[in-house]
Specification:
This protein is of the alpha/beta class. It has helices at about 15-25, 45-50, 70-85, 100-130, 145-160, 165-170, 175-185, 195-205, and strands at about 1-10, 30-35, 55-60, 85-90. It is built from eight helices and four strands. Helix 5 packs antiparallel against helix 6. The protein starts with a strand and ends with a helix.
């Protein structure tokens, strides 16, 4: 069964465009919320999660309709996978009923486990390093932790060549190309310095 979910951030906004698209995509039931994506409690979303059964498919207008926190999305995707529930985004390359979309879905799930392992390892290494230098701790310089966590998934999408740089940045909430390339370098992708000519080419391709 295809179940739609639509959300807008305020009472003044309309859900019509989302619900129309969800209806046309074959959704038999649609749940709607008028609440900010940053809010933890979304009444209709919670009702939908209780309604779903293994084999069902959640259909959304866009991935950010489920929430704006990358970590929250990763955890949700992992939960859906464990429950045997599919996810389709009408405006993102996510459709777990297809091989390509399933790959993206699996990347999110693998990233969730990778994140847990990395946090444990880095916390332990950071404490040992701080003790060796006679310090109690400190904030490391370089790439922000939130980008370190998504680096493996960014690398996979980048190397698959299925999405443009602009699309990948949008999916993962990366605000600048400078940060995007830092994330790729962190993930082990060899990125050469960008010349003015190459910058122009990349803008035209994106």
């Amino acid at each position: 069964m295809r179940v739609g979910y639509a959300r807008v951030s305020t009472q003044e906004q309309t859900l019509d465009s989302q619900t129309d698209a969800l209806g046309k995509s074959g959704c038999e039931r649609i749940f709607t919320d008028k609440v900010s994506g940053m809010k933890a409690h979304k009444p209709e979303f919670d009702r939908m999660m209780s309604y779903l059964r293994a084999g069902d498919t959640i259909v959304i207008w866009k991935l950010d309709r489920l929430g704006r926190s990358t970590r929250g999305l990763i955890e949700l995707v992992e939960t859906l996978s464990q429950q045997g529930i599919h996810l389709v985004s009408l405006n993102d390359p996510i459709d777990t009923t297809s091989p390509g979309g399933l790959l993206v879905f699996q990347i999110f799930c693998a990233l969730a486990e990778h994140e847990r392992n990395v946090i444990v390892q880095r916390t332990r290494a950071g404490l040992e390093s701080a003790r060796a230098r006679g310090r109690n701790g400190g904030r490391p310089k370089g790439l922000a932790v939130k980008y370190q966590k998504i680096a493996p998934a960014v690398k996979n999408l980048y190397e698959s060549s299925s999405q443009s740089t602009t699309q990948i940045m949008s999916y993962f909430g990366i605000g600048s190309r400078r940060t995007f390339y830092k994330v790729l370098r962190y993930a082990g992708v060899a990125i050469k310095p960008i010349t003015a000519g190459r910058k122009a080419d990349q803008k035209s391709l994106a």
